[in-house]
Amino acid sequence: MNAFGLITVDKPIGPTSHKVVSVVRSGTGVKKVGHAGTLDPRASGVLVLCLGSATRLSEFLSTASKRYEAVIRFGSSTETYDAEGDFVHVTGAAPSLEDIRDLLPAFRGDIEQVPPAYSAIKVKGRKAYEMARSGEEVDLDAREVTIYQLSIIDYNPPDLTLDIECSAGTYIRSIANDLGEQLSTGAHLANLRRTKAGPFTLDDCIPLTQLEMAIAAGDWQQYIRPAVEALPELPKIKVSGEELTRVTHGNRIPARDVSSDLACAIGPDGDIVAILEPVEDGTLWHPRKVFSR
Fold first, then answer.
1. Burial 151-178 (b: 16+ CB within 10 A, else e)
2. Which residues of 200-236 are buried (b: 16+ CB within 10 A; e: fewer)?
3. Which CATH class is domain 5-64+199-229?
4. 66-192: in CATH 2.30.110.10
């Protein structure tokens, strides 16, 4: 069946992001379903699903900032930087709250971060975790990420709970491991919950079990959100009549008072029909992406 829009799911610990997509695809009959930003099986929280041609929005949602509640356990480090891996260093020690507070400023702002060897990053065409599992040495380059916010929620040694807002591509596991190394205690990520992805928070989400029940009852469509909600920061240009026809066929329309590099063309139903970009010195809007229904 055809569907267009977003479903924001509170993913539980256990299933992969791909499994959630599979549940929705098979249960609803919607052929085109994708997610906008992977959550590991051991992580829970906000997972944005894109239905139909709204999957074309995933590039915007995947690169949007994310926010997490992370539990970091001091006293031991693992090969995967989380509770999944084998222990590689055990001290049983936990740092003082004062030492943690003194160190945290170094993890805020633009930082250089080395991703975990057990990650899906490609190295000469192969996934790093496949190489690591086969015993090969994995040498990953540091990459720049941005930590917009990093604050302590709670410290009950050996567990430190942090509120972290960061750019896409940030590995919270690496933050845990690096904290343990710099505090000489060892540490790993014990629990991770995504509390925000782009503009969507946990308050916007439906628990996966509730969605599954709605699918079984045949009333799951009530949880579809307008696709335009994915891009709240972009100007909205209402189109109808001839302009709507031109935009949906990929043709340009006149532009007025252009103040942004991109804008959303909004159809009569209030949802997005295209993403527009200014051309010809801002006198025309060109449909960069058109969304079919």
1. eeeebeebbbbbebbbeeebbbbbbbbb
2. bebebbbebeebbebbeeeebeebbbebbbbbeebee
3. alpha beta
4. no
Domain boundaries, the chain: 5-64+199-229, 66-192, 234-290
256: left (phi over 0), alpha (psi -120 to 50) or beta: beta
When the pLDDT of each residue in the chain is averaged and rounded to a whole number, the result is: 93
What is the average per-residue pLDDT within 212-225?
Answer: 97
Band (130; pLDDT cuts 50, 70, 90): low
Decide if 269 is catalytic: no
CA distance 130 to 135: 9
pLDDT digits (tens, 9 = 90+) for 40-51: 899 999 999 999
> Does the domain spanning 234-290 belong to CATH 2.30.130.10?
yes
Decide whether 5-64+199-229 matches 66-192 in CATH topology: yes
Catalytic residue selected from 10, 40, 139, 219: 40
Q: Tens of pLDDT along 26-85? A: 999 999 999 998 898 999 999 999 999 999 999 899 899 999 999 999 999 999 999 988
